Amino acid sequence: MATKTKQHPRNQHSEGYDFGRLVAQTPDLEAFTISSPTGQTTIDFQDVTAVRMLNRALLKTHYNIDFWDIPAGYLCPPIPGRVDYIHYLADLLASSNNQEIPRGRHIKALDIGTGASLVYPVLGQSEYGWHFTGVDIDAGAIKSARKICEFNKLAITLRRQSKPENIFHGVIQPNDVFHVTMCNPPFHSSMEQANKGTQRKWANLGKGRSKKLNFGGQNAELWCPGGEIKFIASMVEQSMEFADQCLWFTSLVSKKDNLQPLARILKKARVADYKVVEMAQGQKTSRFIAWTYMKKKQRTQFVNNAEK
């Protein structure tokens, strides 16, 4: 598969950041702007406060979010990469809808590990009008997400997962129907590995050593026993029980080497179809894996039934 170098064509940030426009909408951002070696306006991406302010400006300018904040220590997500996942999910749903992107609140999306930022539901609702259910095991994350909903009058359903070993159990109710599930899983197997990963990232960016975790992050956001592959394997196993209630199950996969073992796991689960979708964020290529238990004809019916 050819490596992509550009973000999704519908991504509003594919040409970079318009700092003039962002500062006009969010004047507080100006205090965090600096000049790059080439004379371009930017921010210090090692500064979590600066990244948070940039996110606030992006969400206000592009996605009509008047209030957005997260408590200290929680993951501060890069908006362009997060919205790319949403756009590619829209394309995935279009593949089951005669290549037309389904829009509106009758399209239901489930965000596993929605986080304090509530970033995927906020972006997905703004871009496509879908109804989101956000799930998290962390009470502080749910509290923060609820605050974002209340301030912006967002109709997003929030559910607390009380058992960390469960992914879909306990949050998908018997009468629930979802067109797509999404997840940015914890991809390290320990806190030590998470720290090492951050050091590598800063070194690759030419930033030297830093004690800061990239964009912050709580334990459950960054690592879990067994790491990414064990988490997604558990997700696949649990998804079998909800095969008739969800059209597409998806998860980001940070490590390309994990794709082959995950493909074996999916075949064992006897899925009807699965896809690997590649995405590009700057120099980095990321991807998500998607699987369904429904045949092609069933998929079209599933989307059509939602519109009735």
From TrEMBL:
Q: What EC designation does it have?
A: 2.1.1.181
In Pfam terms, one family for this protein is Methyltransf_10
- Protein's cellular compartments: Cytoplasm
Looking up InterPro entries in the UniProt record yields: METTL16/RlmF, rRNA_lsu_MeTfrase_F, SAM-dependent_MTases_sf
Reactions mediated catalytically: adenosine(1618) in 23S rRNA + S-adenosyl-L-methionine = N(6)-methyladenosine(1618) in 23S rRNA + S-adenosyl-L-homocysteine + H(+)
Keywords from UniProt, A to Z, are: Cytoplasm, Methyltransferase, rRNA processing, S-adenosyl-L-methionine, Transferase
Coiled coil ranges (UniProt) are: none
Function (record text) = Specifically methylates the adenine in position 1618 of 23S rRNA.
The cross-references to PANTHER family, in alphabetical order and at most eight, read:
RNA N6-ADENOSINE-METHYLTRANSFERASE METTL16 (PTHR13393:SF0), SAM-DEPENDENT METHYLTRANSFERASE (PTHR13393)
| Family that this chain belongs to | Belongs to the methyltransferase superfamily. METTL16/RlmF family.
The identity of this protein, by name, is Ribosomal RNA large subunit methyltransferase F
